[in-house]
Each structure stands twice: as structure tokens, then as C-alpha cells.
Amino acid sequence: MDISFLLVILQGFLLPLLKAQPGFLNLDCGGTIAYADDIGLRWIPDSNYLFGKRTNTSLTSNNETQYKTVRYFPADDRKYCYNLNVTTGLRYLVRATFLHGNFDRNSVYPKFNLSLGATYWDTITITDVTTPVTTEMVVLAQSPFLSVCLLASSSVRFISTIELRQFIGSMYYSEFERQYLMFMVARINFGALSNASVRYPDDPFDRIWESDSSRSANYQLVDVSPGTQKVATTKPVYVSWDEEPPMKVMQTAVVGNNGTLSYTIYLANNNFQRHASAYLYFAEIEDLNPNETRQFGARFPWGPTHLEVPVNVMENAGGKYRLYEPVFFDISLPLLTPLKFRQTNDSSRGPILNAFEIFKYNLINFGSLDSTAMDSLVSIYPQKEWAQEGGDPCSPIPWTWVQCNSDSQPRIISLKLSGKNLTGNIPQQLTNISGLVEL
Ligand SMILES: *[C@@H]1O[C@H](CO)[C@@H](O)[C@H](O)[C@H]1NC(C)=O
Ligand SMILES: *[C@@H]1O[C@H](CO)[C@@H](O)[C@H](O)[C@H]1NC(C)=O
Ligand SMILES: *[C@@H]1O[C@H](CO)[C@@H](O)[C@H](O)[C@H]1NC(C)=O
Ligand SMILES: *[C@@H]1O[C@H](CO)[C@@H](O)[C@H](O)[C@H]1NC(C)=O
Ligand SMILES: *[C@@H]1O[C@H](CO)[C@@H](O)[C@H](O)[C@H]1NC(C)=O
Ligand SMILES: *[C@@H]1O[C@H](CO)[C@@H](O)[C@H](O)[C@H]1NC(C)=O
Ligand SMILES: *[C@@H]1O[C@H](CO)[C@@H](O)[C@H](O)[C@H]1NC(C)=O
Ligand SMILES: *[C@@H]1O[C@H](CO)[C@@H](O)[C@H](O)[C@H]1NC(C)=O
Ligand SMILES: *[C@@H]1O[C@H](CO)[C@@H](O)[C@H](O)[C@H]1NC(C)=O
Ligand SMILES: *[C@@H]1O[C@H](CO)[C@@H](O)[C@H](O)[C@H]1NC(C)=O
């Protein structure tokens, strides 16, 4: 056979594989095979991971392969971390999911904390066996890997998936990103045509935009103003700037046909009076007559309550079918967060809203001052289990063979290297751990 012909065939097979999702990682914890799912995401098993055990869930109703297995860990005092390679200086969405699926046939459901490196992420509380618990953050990679850690617990711990999505350009840039991780509280697609979420491939970054008519575990939309109607278009909406929301999300909206559009967002599991940020997404998607206008005042709980921020979507976006995205950083959100939009007297149309995102800020814990030296030390022993514990050597829980002092950025005071089969000279890296008093 002609070799170029063969190449053509090969390309035919390889191209769909190579045209992968750049910057995506889908780790099927406890899985054994690589596969593509119904929406085209390619999953890989965590079979190189050294800790915990794989097992099958006993799901019958859920077809998603990634939920048919879990990796689980005993109840103990240590942490279990997955290290994920990233590119320093880029922003990532990090998502972890937990679907119990009755994997241990135990009616006492797990509860444990999760950290990203040394920084607290979320508390995972399992309350039933069939609903996946999902938690997500947007982070700036400040080192070449991120580590997702399941922290010590008196209950069995488990994990179903870990997903990474790399953002491009300045998406989700904030001046606080070196001090805070952005914990995703709500991402709402208003005017959604069904209960289904919008995600990949409609969102090339695979954010999950929840339908405003479905029930969310993290928030509830209450006190919806009368006269609120869904509107939708099939015309393209220009979305390629700022946070680049998916077109499908921007093609639907809610409109306050009686002059006001208001919601109260009940942040059920996120009772916080602290730093947060809010992203509002608007686009004019109705065909207004040339003599018609849509102008409204927006009242936010984080602003002075008497102040209305004027919004004219078409003017702000530079035309119809174009994104206008005001963002509010470093705001405080009450448990009941009201959003109120009121049509101005000279406007012929009521307020419109296409989508909304809220993040709260988790203060970054930079962990041990010796972490760079320790990362460099353990990288010499890629085959050794003790060198693969991952995460920060001291925080929030130290590695099993490391002792740290109690400084806010702890220093290592002792290493138990006996029985670790270290041969030859004392590794150079140890000379950089200045507080070390014992080997
Ligand atoms: C999990 O399920 C797979 C396929 O259904 C099966 O081959 C495997 O033996 C099961 N593993 C365990 C630990 O039950
Ligand atoms: C599960 O798979 C069956 C057959 O493979 C299919 O008919 C059904 O729609 C799937 N259900 C879900 C929720 O994907
Ligand atoms: C992550 O990066 C390290 C160091 O560059 C490399 O040895 C390792 O193979 C990478 N892991 C994966 C899963 O790509
Ligand atoms: C999670 O962390 C918080 C704060 O450090 C702590 O109060 C809580 O007891 C932890 N929960 C579990 C289940 O470990
Ligand atoms: C959509 O979700 C709501 C709230 O959970 C539920 O009441 C409704 O039945 C769902 N509709 C469909 C079509 O599934
Ligand atoms: C909207 O306003 C009109 C007239 O002001 C009123 O008749 C109608 O009942 C209102 N609709 C709703 C849903 O409040
Ligand atoms: C706009 O113009 C149309 C006819 O072109 C007219 O029917 C309508 O009442 C006008 N609307 C307003 C708000 O003036
Ligand atoms: C708009 O109309 C309301 C009620 O008719 C009136 O109280 C208010 O002063 C008007 N606002 C402006 C800016 O004209
Ligand atoms: C150390 O080496 C011995 C012999 O090669 C081996 O049996 C033992 O498992 C090793 N221990 C560790 C912690 O790697
Ligand atoms: C020790 O730290 C210094 C300065 O931080 C660095 O230049 C050097 O490469 C480190 N040595 C080792 C062996 O890690």
C-alpha cells in the first residue's frame, strides 16, 4: 500500500482524537479505562494514583460512566491529594464531583473537607446516594501544579471526578486573584428553554450554566416579580469578549414586562457576609422598533440602596445581539441577595437579564515556606509512595513523614526519612530547609 494513502487513513482516525479540548483534564476517579462520553469529553482513569482503593458504585439509573466508579480512602488523620499539572500564570476552572452511589453500602454518609493545596476549598456533605455533589473554583495557577486534597476525616472519604478547564486571555482576571481563590456559588442561565444545564460543547470552556427553572443545591431564586417572561432568539449573539459566556446562554433571557424584574437569590449553603464578586450578563435579544428603548435602573445589595445604576444594554454593548457584562468585585452578599431592575419612565421596554454568576473569595493559604524545597526533594523519587503524598508538606495537614512548626507559614522541623531507602548523599534540597532539626 502507498504510504501516503496510509497516512491519509491514519489522519482520518487520529484527527478526531487530536482535535481534543485544549486545557481540559477529565479524571475518572476509580475508573479503569479511557473513553469519550456522550458530550464528547475524553475521560482518563486515575489508575496511576497510588492511594486509596477503586470500587464500583451500585448505580442503575445514572448512565454517566464517570459515576460508576469512585476512589475511596479510609477514615484517618492524613490527607490524600491529587497533583494536577498546570501552566503557571494561567487561570483554571477546577471542579470536583462526588456521587456516592452506595459504593460502601454504609448508611452513614461521608462528610469531609476539601482543600486546593493548603487553601480551604469546601466541605463535602453527602446526604443521599444518587445526587452528585459538585464543587468548583476559578484559580490563577501560581505554581506548576494544583493539588486537590481530601482532608482528614472520621468518615470514609471518596471522590468521583476531577476536572480542569483552562481559560484564555484575561477571562476571570481580578486584582484579587493572587490572594483569593474564587469559589463558584451560582451560575445561572436566565430564560433557559428547559431544565437542562448548558455546558460543553455549547460552552467551549465547559462551565455549567444552570437553568433558572431547575432546582439548584447551592441557591434558590425566590420573590420573582410578576410579569417576568422568558424570551429567546435563534439569531447569533456576539459574545467573544470579557468572560465569553456561551452564545446559547445569551440567546435566552428574562424580561420584566410589567416594568420591574427582580429576584431574591437565597444562598442556601453559602451564608456569607464577605468578599464576593458578581458577573452580570446582558444582551438585547428582542427586535425593538427604531422608536423603542430599553432602559432600566439596577439596584444591588452591595451598592447604596437608594442608588440605581443606569443600564441601557444596547448602548452599553454597542448594538443589539451583543454582550454587555458589568462585573462587581469585592462586594459583600447577604444570605438573601436581592437583584432589582426597574424600567425608567422614558423606556418602552422592561428590564432584561441573560445570565448571572457569583463567586466568593477563599483567602489563599500559601502553606509552608519549605514547600519549594520539598517539592524539589520529592521529585527525585517519582516511584516512591511517600514522595507522592501531594499538596503542601505542612498545611492544612502535614505529610505523614513530616513535622512542622505552627507558624502561619510553617517551617519543617523534622523529617522521618528512615526506612525510605534513601541511598547515597543527603539530597541537596535538604540544605535549604533551614528549620530542620531532626532527620
Ligand atoms: C466493576 O465493574 C466492572 C465492569 O462492570 C467489573 O469488570 C469489575 O470487576 C467491577 N469491580 C469491582 C471491584 O467490583
Ligand atoms: C441511559 O441509557 C439508555 C440506553 O443506553 C438510554 O435509553 C437512556 O436515555 C440513558 N439515560 C440517560 C439519563 O442518559
Ligand atoms: C506532570 O509534570 C511532571 C513534571 O514535569 C511530569 O513528570 C509528569 O509526567 C506530569 N504528569 C502528567 C500526568 O502529565
Ligand atoms: C472542615 O473545616 C472546618 C474549618 O477548618 C472545620 O471547622 C470543620 O470541622 C471541618 N469539617 C470536617 C468534616 O472535617
Ligand atoms: C424542572 O425543575 C423543576 C424544579 O425542580 C421541576 O418542578 C419541574 O418538574 C422540572 N421540569 C421538567 C420538565 O423536568
Ligand atoms: C401587569 O400590568 C398590567 C397593567 O398594569 C396588569 O393588568 C397585569 O395584571 C400585570 N401583570 C402581572 C403579571 O402582574
Ligand atoms: C413605535 O412605532 C410604531 C410604528 O412604527 C408604533 O406602532 C408604536 O406605537 C411606536 N411605539 C412607541 C413607544 O412610540
Ligand atoms: C417616573 O415616574 C414616577 C411615577 O409616575 C415618578 O414618581 C418619578 O418621579 C418619575 N421619574 C422620573 C425620573 O421622571
Ligand atoms: C526498601 O528496600 C527494600 C529492599 O529493596 C524493600 O523491601 C522495601 O520495601 C523498601 N522500602 C521502601 C519504603 O521503599
Ligand atoms: C536553595 O535555595 C536557593 C535560594 O532560594 C536556590 O537558589 C537554590 O537553587 C536552592 N537549592 C536547592 C538544592 O534547592
TrEMBL record:
Keywords: Kinase, Signal, Transferase. GO terms for cellular component: membrane. Its main location: membrane. It is a single-pass membrane protein. It holds the Pfam family Malectin_like. The keyword Transferase applies. GO terms for molecular function: kinase activity. Residues 1-20 form the signal peptide. It is found in: Membrane. Residues 27-360 form the Malectin-like domain. It comes from the Eukaryota. InterPro entries: LRR_dom_sf, Malectin-like_Carb-bd_dom. This is Leucine-rich repeat protein kinase family protein. It comes from Rhynchospora pubera.
